[in-house]
Amino acid sequence: MSGAAAVELPIIDLSKPSAEVGEEIVNAAATYGFLYIKNTGRDIKPEAIERAFELSREFFASPEEEKAKCLIGPENKGWSSMHREILDQGNQRKGDFKEAFNFGTFENGKARQPLPKSLASHESELSQFATSCHDLCMKVLRAFAIGFKIKEEDGGEEWFSSRHDVEKSSSIFRMLYYPAVPEEADYIPDVDIRAGAHSDYGSITLLFQRPGQPGLEIKTPSDEWASVPVIPNGTESDPSPPILVNIGDLLSYWTDGLLKSTVHRVIFPSDARRGGEDRYSIAYFLHPCPEVNLVPIPSEVVASRGKGEGITQSKRVLTGQQHLDERLAASYGWKSEDKKA
Ligand SMILES: O=C(O)CCC(=O)C(=O)O
Ligand SMILES: [Fe+2]
């Protein structure tokens, strides 16, 4: 894959929410579907991010038999998963060059799924990290509600956040590992990809990337691929790189296409020899509570700027779960009992 030009995404500072910040974040999400949240360490501490990556590295380095015990499958109701899509050899090219581990929501600090040995002893740390991701997502949703000028009597700032819950939502915390492709592997530089083009399904996604491990690309408003810098201009001396936020299909539907669910992918670095180096990332996919009705947002902003590409096209009120099921069925023919995404 050839390296695309870098996109300059807005960097939003949520430390002092205001009408201006609300407008800024709505415009960023309406234009690009992706934006950065300035990370000064107040919401999620740099050490906590470091630690989460450390645990991820330990897990992915653990023996294949260990990882194989938690493969996604109907037998474990999709709670857990070592999701390996690498094709070893051969000339059939499908799937991404990546591994991932998905956690469902935690309950009282405990995972609801069997965890592999290397992660089981860190359950409470992992749960805390997922909770801090959820809390930051709520801040983002509050900023959208401010930007949408939702009236106090209609639910105000909490309109979205009250429809999401740290335990009851269908949110997924995912650790991702894109291994360097070994010399002898059957790897075709301009064809193979680390994560194929897709959009995310839920409300919003938080994405943590590592300095020196680029690869994320998004489709720009002019429909071209552009790379997303890990450390954008002006954040070089922040305690931690800014956290990427992107809009998922559900929130785009809910806002009638005003907020964009942007297609993105992860490519191999073009300047690295062959398959490059290992890349790690962490994503938190926020979903609403499954039974939440996706009713029109009481907002003049959404009514006047919506694109007529979502909720106004629907003949019935979908729940969060039904929306997810439809997306899964469209992508894979899966039902939600088979797999969480
Ligand atoms: O690893 C990344 O940077 C992106 C991952 C991603 O887009 C996903 O898992 O949905
Ligand atoms: Fe994604």
From TrEMBL:
Does the entry feature the keyword Iron, yes or no? yes
Which molecular function term from Gene Ontology is one that the record holds? metal ion binding
Question: What Pfam families does this protein map onto?
Answer: 2OG-FeII_Oxy, DIOX_N
Location of the Fe2OG dioxygenase domain: 168-288
Among the GO biological process terms of this entry, one is:
small molecule biosynthetic process
Q: Which SUPFAM superfamilies does the UniProt entry name for this protein? A: Clavaminate synthase-like (SSF51197)
Recorded family membership: Belongs to the iron/ascorbate-dependent oxidoreductase family.
Q: What is this protein called?
A: Oxidoreductase-like protein
